[in-house]
Design a protein that fits this description.
Structural class: alpha/beta
Shape: globular
Number of helices: 10
Distance between the termini: 20 Å
Bound molecules: 5'-O-[(R)-(carboxyoxy)(hydroxy)phosphoryl]adenosine, zinc ion
Largest sheet: 5 strands, mixed
Oligomer: single chain
Order of helices and strands: EEEHEHEHEEEHHHHHEHEH
Strand order of the largest sheet: 3-2-1-4-5
Helix content: 40-55%
Length: 339
């Protein structure tokens, strides 16, 4: 089954063509315009998606050496995300489905991230605990089968990607902050300062990251400019360690608690080098299989959306043309995704 996938939930305009588990094209255009504002400006994102959607889809088809005739169905992100941005991709795909008389399915962006991992690792087994970590989400999800998600823990405030981005902003680095902190932290001393970790005793699988960002702010206020400059890499390493440690502890505990012998990560922060190596080590120590997504499928891309869509479409599940965009779409208890 050849699926054309489209992703426009935030600031990446992406189109991909997959044939089963094989990626024939995965074209991603990251909107540079937001860098000067230190974060995504929703209206500018929508406008850029409108400009880019046709050339990006055309490029994906060209790279896959196909025309729309060779496509069996379409998949598109319909939430969560920025409503104006989501609507561009969703309406475009509805138009394609209508014009070609082929099925389309709406995909939850977070399930897309999960299938970005499955795309890299076809041998995945269930039950599996997925740690989903992105700019907007930090969730522990138990999957007992394809397309079946149970949320066992999530952040109560900021997402871990947000902690990286806001931390980087406080440190005077650019946007997005995650990759920048990751790079600087590699040469830093992570024992330079101990930032707090919120472990939340009432639900041991929930997360909290707003305190970490505030702790960094307070800590930086006490440092001179010279100290900040001299110890930038040490601060990055200490901050990154405090952000990653709860993810490791809670993911391993969740796998133990729910009897899953498989662990996987997904989402933009899954590209973080400390998270990747530390969680791999913790899984090895506990005898769990660990599934790492390829770097290319960690941050937002349409191949992951197409791969999730394939699971619906191969079961004959498609969306109606009345499907709307849902900015706050939840992973479990999805609204109107399929008919
Ligand atoms: O999944 P994604 O591309 O978009 C969302 O759906 O949010 O994730 C983007 C997030 C940003 O917060 C970015 O800073 C973070 O992923 N990120 C990283 C790394 N690469 C991307 N965070 C830590 N270390 C990285 N290497
Ligand atoms: Zn994402």
């Amino acid at each position: 089954m050849k699926i054309l996938g489209v992703e426009t939930s935030c600031d990446e305009t992406s189109a991909a063509v997959i044939d089963g588990n094989q990626v024939l094209a995965n074209v991603i255009s990251s909107q540079e315009i937001h860098n000067q504002f230190g974060g995504v400006v929703p209206e500018l994102a929508s406008r850029a998606h409108i400009r880019l959607i046709i050339p990006i889809v055309e490029k994906a088809l060209e790279q896959a050496d196909l025309t729309l005739d060779g496509i069996d169905g379409f998949a598109v992100t319909y939430g969560p995300g920025l409503v104006g941005a989501l609507l561009v991709g969703l309406n475009f795909v509805k138009g394609l489905a209508l014009a070609t008389d082929k099925p389309f399915v709406g995909v939850n962006h977070m399930e897309g991230h999960i299938y970005g991992n499955i795309l890299s690792q076809e041998q995945i087994q269930f039950p599996i605990v997925f740690l989903i970590v992105s700019g907007g989400h930090t969730q522990l999800v138990l999957m007992e089968d394809h397309l079946k998600y149970r949320i066992i823990g999530q952040t109560r405030d900021d997402a871990v990607g947000e902690a990286f981005d806001k931390g980087a902003k406080l440190l005077g680095l650019g946007y997005p902050g995650g990759p920048l902190i990751d790079r600087l932290a590699r040469e830093g001393d992570d024992s330079y300062y101990r930032f707090p970790r919120a472990m939340l005793k009432d639900n041991p699988f929930d997360f909290s990251y707003s305190g970490l960002k505030t702790a960094l702010l307070v800590f930086l206020q006490k440092l001179s400019e010279k100290e900040k400059e001299e110890h930038l890499k040490d601060i990055c390493a200490s901050y990154q360690k405090a952000a990653v440690e709860p993810l490791i502890i809670k993911t391993i505990n969740a796998a133990k608690e729910f009897g899953a012998r498989q662990v996987a990560i997904a989402g933009g922060v899954a590209a973080n080098s400390l998270l990747r190596t530390w969680l791999k080590q913790a899984c090895d120590e506990n005898g769990f299989a660990f599934y790492l997504p390829e770097f290319a499928y960690c941050t937002d891309n349409a191949a992951m959306i197409a791969r999730a869509g394939l699971e619906y479409l191969r079961r004959g599940q498609k969306s109606p043309l009345t499907l709307n965009a849902y900015p706050a779409l939840k992973l479990a208890g999805k609204i109107g995704a399929t008919q």
